Description:
The complex is a heterodimer.
Chain A: E1 3-5, E2 10-14, E3 19-21, E4 24-26, E5 31-38, E6 45-49, E7 60-61, E8 72-74, E9 83-91, E10 100-101, E11 105-110
Parallel strand pairs in A: 2-11
Antiparallel strand pairs in A: 1-4, 3-8, 5-6, 5-9, 7-8, 9-10, 9-11
Chain B: E1 5-7, E2 10-13, E3 19-24, E4 31-38, E5 42-50, E6 53-56, E7 65-69, E8 75-79, E9 88-95, E10 105-106, E11 110-114
Parallel strand pairs in B: 2-11
Antiparallel strand pairs in B: 1-3, 3-8, 4-5, 4-9, 5-6, 7-8, 9-10, 9-11
Amino acid sequence: AQRVTQPEKLLSVFKGAPVELKCNYSYSGSPELFWYVQYSRQRLQLLLRHISRESIKGFTADLNKGETSFHLKKPFAQEEDSAMYYCALSDRGSTLGRLYFGRGTQLTVWP
Amino acid sequence: GAGVSQSPSNKVTEKGKDVELRCDPISGHTALYWYRQSLGQGLEFLIYFQGNSAPDKSGLPSDRFSAERTGGSVSTLTIQRTQQEDSAVYLCASSFRRTNTGELFFGEGSRLTVL
């Protein structure tokens, strides 16, 4: 079974502080990991995917297969980063194309 | 339209009534998904369509829930004999391909409140 765990429901940091949103997964196949973000009153949208190895809005995430983790990091948080963040997993080899989401972490960045 | 469109945006109904939620995906997207977002529960997968067929219905919570998709486009999620625990935001998403590149495009959701 596929499982995505985000251990923190709520996370608060001050502006300029580093932030790390944790994501652990359980999957025996070939996973593909993503972070989705939902800003207040906006649609859920893709933030980044591990396969692209990209940095979006200063965020990065490294897939650690040994620790089965895909933590989202940003060295200097900004107030506009306040949002709900979801980690998601899909089976790259699957024909079903379904994404498994974690329960989400609500990030608040205080001024 | 430019994005995934869902209607109604808000629905308040009485326990026991049936409701229909509609999703209009991005033109050309062959894959369509329904998720349910409940407070503190994250995103719960309901059903997935590839074209008009639903290869994965495993997330439908009970036989009161059903969904269909016609013409490879619009989808309707129907909840019969609604219960209070059905209250949630129902999200629809679409993507271009069956094999998942990971980018689902979500609608704004339909907020269902069952009194």
